Amino acid sequence: PAALQFESVGKTYPGQSVPALSDLTLTVARGSRTGIIGRSGAGKSTLVRLISGLETPDSGRLLVQGQDVTRLDRAGQRQRQARTGLVFQHFNLLAQRTVLGNVTLPLELAGQPRQQREQRALELLEQVGLADFARRYPAQLSGGQKQRVGIARALVTGPDLLLADEATSALDPETSAGILDLLTRLQSERDLTLVIVTHQMEVVRAATTHVAVLDRGRLVEEGPTRTLLAQP
Ligand code: ADP
Ligand code: ADP
């Protein structure tokens, strides 16, 4: 099955007259690097919340790895969330925890024993180039380093989907490029589906092979990044 399949998905927030997403039909192929691009208000955050399970569609269906997400029980929901790694714009690191403590957190919540989760987190920190920073605190890191911690945390539960939500929007261009290189490297090494949600064309160009364009809650275009976002 596809990694994600939106089938005529509609979502309108309570009290709003205009839908946040309208009749959205979109397939994200397993193992792809797919960009979702759109201006402010296009529906990107809503799409992220549907994928991460924070919202459910009002109409239509969303299938994750072929499973209808509205039909999952609580255990199924938890499992699905562990299989989706989220990377945020503002990193969402806990200031009182060390780098290692931030990366182990998802495993702690899953009840994994300390030694096991620390070993696993250290492996991930190694892969993002931060092995020597395990005992530091987020405040002691640069923006790019914080995002590497965010990526390690997103991958620590072994997800098959990595969802980057404006993950480079708070970073300067050079740091952004480094993070996009890391995401694409991890995608191929770990055979992940990488979904990059952004308002920045350069980000989609640099890191994706397929792109969907949203505007005011609707899918307006979809296809290979090279043809759709060809440089004039
Ligand atoms: P973005 O464009 O990055 O989503 P926004 O400033 O539009 O940023 O939204 C910030 C937060 O406020 C998001 O969680 C979004 O869902 C929420 N939000 C956006 N529009 C509304 C609204 N009309 N009413 C309530 N919350 C909103
Ligand atoms: P984007 O992330 O592309 O900026 P959003 O998904 O945040 O788009 O917003 C899509 C539409 O839904 C906008 O019109 C926004 O105002 C509205 N919206 C988003 N979140 C909320 C919310 N929590 N409550 C009400 N309206 C919202």
Automatic annotation (TrEMBL):
Any single biological process term in GO: amino acid transport
Record carries keyword ATP-binding: yes
Keywords: Amino-acid transport, ATP-binding, Cell membrane, Membrane, Nucleotide-binding, Translocase, Transport
Gene Ontology molecular functions: ATP binding; ATP hydrolysis activity
A GO CC annotation given for this chain: plasma membrane
Superkingdom field: Bacteria
Every ABC transporter domain range: 4-232
Family named by the database record: Belongs to the ABC transporter superfamily.
Listed name of the protein: ABC transporter ATP-binding protein
Residues shown, of full length: 6 to 237 of 324
